[in-house]
Amino acid sequence: MDTVFIKGLEIETLIGAYTWERSLRQCLHLDLDMAWDIHKAAQSDDLEHALDYAQVVAHIQAFAHQAQYQLVESFADHLAVHLMQDFGIRWMRLRVTKPGVNIHARQLGIEIERGQR
Ligand SMILES: Nc1nc2c(c(=O)[nH]1)N=C([C@H](O)[C@@H](O)CO)CN2
């Protein structure tokens, strides 16, 4: 199976478990790998048959705009469900990185895999 990917996508959302985080929006970095058979798109040279990564980004931005989770786990899990349903993606890996505010680490976050390749 082929892969359509999006790396280093920056989005803003309300996220955090601490009180000070509930009244501001923070930046998350997203990396996605999505299984997709590209043969039909390659043969037809038609965006209609491709997993349109611009549309995926637009969905993620809309999702992040309305989301207000405490944990990156919840954000990632719900986002994966939405994307797989809306685009018919069979398998995806999603890494969500949060800047380490007040924590002595450059990056913090999680990586999930959903579905079957
Ligand atoms: N496994 C997790 N641990 C923590 C999370 C999280 O979302 N998942 N969140 C926080 C705080 O919100 C922190 O990011 C504030 O800097 C702490 N631990």
From TrEMBL:
EC number: 4.1.2.25
Substrates-to-products reaction catalysed: 7,8-dihydroneopterin = 7,8-dihydromonapterin; 7,8-dihydroneopterin = 6-hydroxymethyl-7,8-dihydropterin + glycolaldehyde
GO molecular function: dihydroneopterin aldolase activity; isomerase activity
Pathway it works in: Cofactor biosynthesis; tetrahydrofolate biosynthesis; 2-amino-4-hydroxy-6-hydroxymethyl-7,8-dihydropteridine diphosphate from 7,8-dihydroneopterin triphosphate: step 3/4
Any single Pfam family the record assigns to this protein: FolB
Enzyme class, first EC level, given as a word: lyase
Gene Ontology biological-process entries: folic acid biosynthetic process; tetrahydrofolate biosynthetic process
GO CC aspect terms: cytoplasm
Superkingdom to which the source organism belongs: Bacteria
Keywords: Folate biosynthesis, Isomerase, Lyase
Function: Catalyzes the conversion of 7,8-dihydroneopterin to 6-hydroxymethyl-7,8-dihydropterin.
Family recorded in the similarity comment: Belongs to the DHNA family.
Full protein name: 7,8-dihydroneopterin aldolase
